[in-house]
Amino acid sequence: MDKAVLRQIIWDEQMSDSTEYCVYCFTTRGDRIGCCGENHFGTFADMYKEDQDAIVDELLEDELAKEQK
Question: Of 17, 18, 19, 22, which residue has the fewest beta carbons closer than 10 angstroms?
Fold first, then answer.
């Protein structure tokens, strides 16, 4: 699949996902109460654009690595 198309698919999925991320390191919350010494979490849609880009880039790289196997 084309990298740009896959990136857009991941972006769209993340915008509607309710997964919460640590606003400092972008680790998913899971069942944690805190992360990075704080308890600040937010959904993908709540984050700054540059933070969203970092998350999408990481998810894209993971997906591309899976396709190569």
Answer: 18
